[in-house]
């Protein structure tokens, strides 16, 4: 299962192995919540270990997107996502849904599709709106869905079987057409509507302004040193803050040389953004804590 919303640097794939390090407490804080993956996993799988969960992300529009997803705003019965062209994308970068679900690698900067844009638009409109244009009719010879295909997920998966029967499509083109990333990302937003809100608080603050209640565990997925630009963030100030707290603070990073923090756990993870022509770069994710 994918956890949280689509997000660059998401811990979705390693959420279970990170969460196994957290002790029981009254409160769990996801202080640099980002794409909500850790909070989502904890709410579903560790609900009995905590009385309340606190998700904090300094970017207010990301928090709002998470709220909308939990409230069911992206349910297919309510939300029929229109096709976002390259021009639409750059004209609406202030909209969190557009910026995240239609960007390459969820980097919130570059448009999702570099090629096959028109063909992807045809597939999108067929899946979402049951519109079958000339590409669908003449190239794929496909004009209607089976009666069993009722949801976007049903249609997207069925479309894969249709594409694989088209022998003139080479393997590389087939893989490009099969990946309807924007719809897969929408499905991740839709799945959040199953969460219960009474045990969850969502805030958009600087980490230092979040009140940490007694008997709490705090997790911090901070901006990694030397990686993508997350705006102004002082690692020195953060580590000074974390080291002086009287509650346990757990920190994800590639490396923390500060001797005040102890390495608890590491795991290898494929990096989406460090890929050469010959091989995929494997990064080692690490979890540290402040010995409290």
Quick structural summary:
The protein is α/β, with parallel strands linked by helices. It has eleven helices and seven strands.
Question: Which features does this protein show?
Answer:
single chain; about 290 residues; alpha/beta; Rossmann fold; 2 domains
The strand count comes to 7
Which CATH class of the largest domain?
A: Alpha Beta
Count of discrete domains? 2
What is the CATH topology of the largest domain? Answer: Rossmann fold
Large-scale geometry: elongated
**Any guess at the CATH architecture of the largest domain?**
3-Layer(aba) Sandwich
**What distance lies between the first and last C-alpha atoms, to the nearest angstrom?**
32 Å
CATH superfamily of the largest domain: Vaccinia Virus protein VP39
Strand count, sense and barrel status of the largest sheet are: 7 strands, mixed
> How many helical stretches?
11
String of helices and strands: HEHEHHHHHHHHEEHEEE
**Strands of the biggest beta sheet: in what spatial order?**
3-2-1-4-5-7-6
Binned, the helix content reads 25-40%
Unreliable stretches, pLDDT < 50, 5 or more residues? 272-278
Rounded Rg: 21 Å
Helix and strand content put the structural class at alpha/beta
Strand content: 15-25%
Structure description:
The longest helix has 13 residues, at 117-129. The protein has helices spanning 15-19, 37-45, 60-70, 86-91, 96-101, 117-129, 134-139, 152-163, 171-178, 181-191, 235-243; strands at residues 27-30, 52-56, 200-203, 216-220, 249-253, 262-275, 280-289. The chain has 292 residues and is α/β, with parallel strands linked by helices. Mean pLDDT is 88; it is low at 272-278. The chain has a seven-stranded mixed beta sheet, with helices on one face. Helix content is 33%, strand content 16%. It has eleven helices and seven strands. It is elongated, with a radius of gyration of 21 Å. It has two domains: 12-58 and 205-289, Vaccinia Virus protein VP39 (Rossmann fold, 3-Layer(aba) Sandwich), CATH 3.40.50; 86-192, no CATH class.
């Amino acid at each position: 299962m994918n956890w949280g919303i689509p997000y660059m640097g998401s811990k979705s794939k390693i959420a279970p192995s990170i969460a196994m390090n957290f002790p029981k407490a009254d409160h769990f804080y996801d202080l640099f919540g980002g794409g909500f993956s850790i909070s989502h996993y904890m709410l579903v799988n560790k609900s009995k270990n905590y009385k309340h969960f606190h998700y904090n992300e300094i970017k207010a529009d990301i928090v709002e997107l998470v709220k909308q997803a939990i409230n069911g705003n992206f349910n297919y019965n309510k939300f029929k996502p229109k096709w976002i062209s390259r021009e639409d994308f750059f004209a609406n970068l202030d909209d969190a849904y557009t910026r995240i679900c239609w960007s390459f690698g969820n980097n919130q900067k570059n448009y999702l599709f570099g090629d096959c844009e028109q063909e992807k638009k045809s597939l999108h409109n067929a899946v979402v709106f049951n519109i079958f244009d000339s590409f669908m009719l003449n190239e794929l010879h496909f004009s209607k869905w089976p009666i069993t295909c009722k949801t976007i997920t049903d249609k997207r998966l069925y479309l894969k079987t249709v594409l694989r029967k088209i022998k003139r499509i080479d393997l590389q083109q087939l893989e490009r057409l099969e990946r309807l990333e924007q719809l897969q990302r929408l499905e991740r937003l839709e799945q959040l509507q199953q969460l219960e809100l009474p045990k969850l608080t969502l805030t958009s603050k600087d980490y230092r302004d979040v009140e940490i209640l007694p008997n709490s565990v705090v997790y911090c997925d901070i901006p990694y040193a030397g990686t993508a630009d997350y705006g102004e963030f002082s690692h020195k100030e953060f580590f000074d803050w974390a080291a002086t707290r009287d509650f346990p603070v757990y920190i994800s990073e590639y490396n923390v040389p500060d001797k005040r923090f102890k390495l608890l756990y590491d795991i290898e993870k494929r990096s989406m953004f460090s890929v050469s022509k010959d091989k995929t770069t494997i990064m080692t994710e690490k979890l540290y804590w402040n010995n409290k």
